[in-house]
Amino acid sequence: MKRIGFTTTIPVELVMASGGAPCDLNNVFITSENPSEYIDFAESEGLPRNICAWIKGIYTAVVRGAVDEVIAVTEGDCSNSHALAELFMEQGIPVHSFAYPFGKSDRLSFLKNEFEGLASSLGTTVGVAMESVKRTDRVRSKLRELDRLTVEGRVTGFENHITLVSSTDFNGDIDTYEKELDALLYDARGREPSTNSIRIGVLGVPTIFDDIYAFLEERGAQVVFNEIQRQFSIPSTNPDYIARYAEYTYPYDVFTRLEDIQKQVEERKIHGLIHYVQSFCYRQMQDITMRKHLDVPVLTVEGDGPGGIDSRTRIRVESFLEMLEAKHV
Amino acid sequence: MSRVGIDLGSRYVKAAVLRDEHVKLLRWDTAEFYRSFVKRRGGELYIELAAAGLPDDTAITATGYGRNLMSFANANVISEIKAHFRGALEATGESDFILVDVGGQDSKVIYVKDGYIEDFVMNDKCAASTGRFLENACSILHVSLDELSAMKDKPVKLSSTCAIFSESEIIGKIAEGCTTEEIGAGVNESIARRLLPLIKRFRAPRIYAAGGVAANGALFSMLSDMVDKEIDILPESQYNGCRGCLFY
Q1: pTM for this structure?
Q2: Residues of chain A neighbouring B200 (CB-CB closer than 8 A)
């Protein structure tokens, strides 16, 4: 089975319909035994120090043969993906491209073209992919339950993070993924809700250091919302398959994301938000807009390379929780 | 029983001792403090106040850099943000203000609204907006911190984003023939420029400054011009954190 890698979330059902095994390259990098070594290798190959660690991680994953082909997302995510795709092409690695639209007016028709283009490039059709959609729909509805249990405090922020972030490729094997998800749901339904009183939402791309969840919980907080991870799980239930990707907020403007965030803050009764930004990522600039539009306190946390959170970030997070506790709880 | 608030800074350890309603302020070099007054017994660290001339039954509240790296068996440890916030709250009697604290290795801006911490920001990753950078600049320029604190005219532009590279830049400016005063003013201005975006995030009727670097009049005068608002330096500004500890 051909392993098809991708640089960020794409309609995974098209890959499944083509008979390929989907593989989110970000996950290959971050779940590897030594992610820092992936970055060292990419830098030794000449990738600049001042580009984001994820790009370097993906580079190493691909050139070391994690996948047979790559889908590069050329709009709606980092523009470094363009040059990254060129590096792959230069090394003879087959590259398909996929783009999310920038504008709002013709979002759906643009996406239809892109879906058809990618399907054809992979040797399938959108029609054939509808069979795979039935399969993923069953899992996606369970992911929505997982998210509800997170809001209730029966699923931890970390469990929510890791399960949703892995739904971009279902770890390359949807049957095993579903079994593990079933087991987690079964266990979680029987748990007592967390008694941690500070309700936190985590915004932004998934953090490069995932021990932040354990740290937050140790300090009395409960993560009830992982913005982008939830989006990665394509939470829309729109009967039109392609329209779900028009409602998926991640690749679009910050205002589209803000609408979703504001709604979730209210529904999930969130006291404070942690906005994670990746060093050297263009999304760092969106922090300015987010802060202006959000009514709950926001702590911006920046991460660069893999590893645990540094002591300065710990101090900042801890002080943020103390502040929320004094004000709200 | 007496109480003591201790601020374990990166350069100095500051203490406020409250006894019979009187506060006495003390200061030690940080490395010296750890060597003389911190002891390990049974796998735990203790602050030995008797060695510092204080009664054994003194209740200790401590804060400072490395709060997460170190805990003391005989002290209540609180975050720096909390300590500095409370120090300023008690010192000013105000409930809506911005506090700019510039210490040896970090800068913090705390936004206080209705008597609570509403938000705060800290410099990240680099010490180029802190006291350590000023000390290094003084050593290159062969001037004292007091002398540097008066330099504010015709600042040269220092553009490096990194404290270490800025030091090379200072050497370059000396080679170009810039005067010590102009370079010193440039050093002060570069710190003020780094603090500016941290302060501009917030709006409050008053701005106060604390921390060792608050003694640098030139720097805060430049910053005050940049934000177009008076910045009041807290009395004995270096001791704001340890004074704040006394209230927890």
Answers
A1: 0.86
A2: none
